[in-house]
Amino acid sequence: MPRLPSPTLRLCHRLPNPSPKTPIQTMSTQQTQSPSKPALRRQIKTRLSTLSPPSVSEQSLCAQNLLITHPTYTAARSLSVYLSMPNGEARTNVLIRHALERGKEVFVPYIYALHPAPASSSNGDGDGDAGTQRGKKKKDMAMLRLGSVEEFEGLESGGWGIPCLPSEGLEKRANALGGFGPLSDRKDGDKDEGKTVDVVVAPGVAFDSSMARLGHGGGFYDRWLARACSNAKEKKPYVVGLCLAEQVVGNGEIEMGERDRRVDAVVVGDGRVLTVGDGVGPT
């Protein structure tokens, strides 16, 4: 596959408020009353349902091209990237191909059942992602290595049309936090303290310019990011939210709990990059 052309902002139809000369915006002090998390999820999902597929494609390409030129991504040797839905969020197909073609280690999510199940749901579930609900089978997320562009393009779609890793051969896939296979299948002696990734590209239902993130309600990323940051001996992963313009809300609209993880930057499909400073891990 030929090298991608340099990103061009002519692909980005900006909203009226951001200035084309100043794509980097910093945190605002404006605060608004937070709606409930379920209510905000419904609002954003209703807004996203009106987007046409061409709009999602155009914004996705713009956001991915912006991220590809971000210095932190350029310097990264490893990253974890979500596998995107066909609609309703920024796609990641261009980013994944770009990273693999340049020899970066790419890790993608794999959701698995915990065995045995935890005694309670108070095991690091993020408040913003609602955590796992009682009465349901407990699940968790691992980041496992994707081997090649060819493997990525051959992945079959699972729930919500999201590509997913096959369940066969998981024990041979490198885990982003060390060892092989999902965390539930690893022994304590296999854990590699200090092993993590350089960059995490995280999905979300909504983001704001204070770096707050509202997830889909499973708590998977809040828990995994907590493990990834605690596993890091020196530099924590740089966490980037990738989203469409319709997913950016005003500061204070996203209710944040004590276990919720903020991101370090938000790359938006209208050409904006929201940040509160480079090189700082999520808190």
UniProtKB/TrEMBL annotation:
Superkingdom: Eukaryota
UniProt KW keywords: ATP-binding, Nucleotide-binding
Pfam families: 5-FTHF_cyc-lig (PF01812)
Keyword ATP-binding: yes
GO annotation, cellular component aspect: mitochondrion
GO molecular function: 5-formyltetrahydrofolate cyclo-ligase activity; ATP binding
SUPFAM superfamilies per UniProt: NagB/RpiA/CoA transferase-like
Reactions listed under catalytic activity: (6S)-5-formyl-5,6,7,8-tetrahydrofolate + ATP = (6R)-5,10-methenyltetrahydrofolate + ADP + phosphate
Coiled coil ranges: none
GO biological process: folic acid-containing compound biosynthetic process; tetrahydrofolate interconversion
EC number assigned by the record: 6.3.3.2
Keyword ATP-binding annotated: yes
Renumbered residue ranges of the record's region Disordered: 1-41, 118-140
Biased composition (Low complexity): 22-38
Classification via InterPro entries: FTHF_cligase (IPR002698), FTHF_cligase-like_sf (IPR024185), NagB/RpiA_transferase-like (IPR037171)
PANTHER family with a match to the protein in the record: 5-FORMYLTETRAHYDROFOLATE CYCLO-LIGASE, ATPASE INHIBITOR/5-FORMYLTETRAHYDROFOLATE CYCLO-LIGASE
Membership in a protein family: Belongs to the 5-formyltetrahydrofolate cyclo-ligase family.
Protein name as annotated: 5-formyltetrahydrofolate cyclo-ligase
Organism of origin: Salinomyces thailandicus
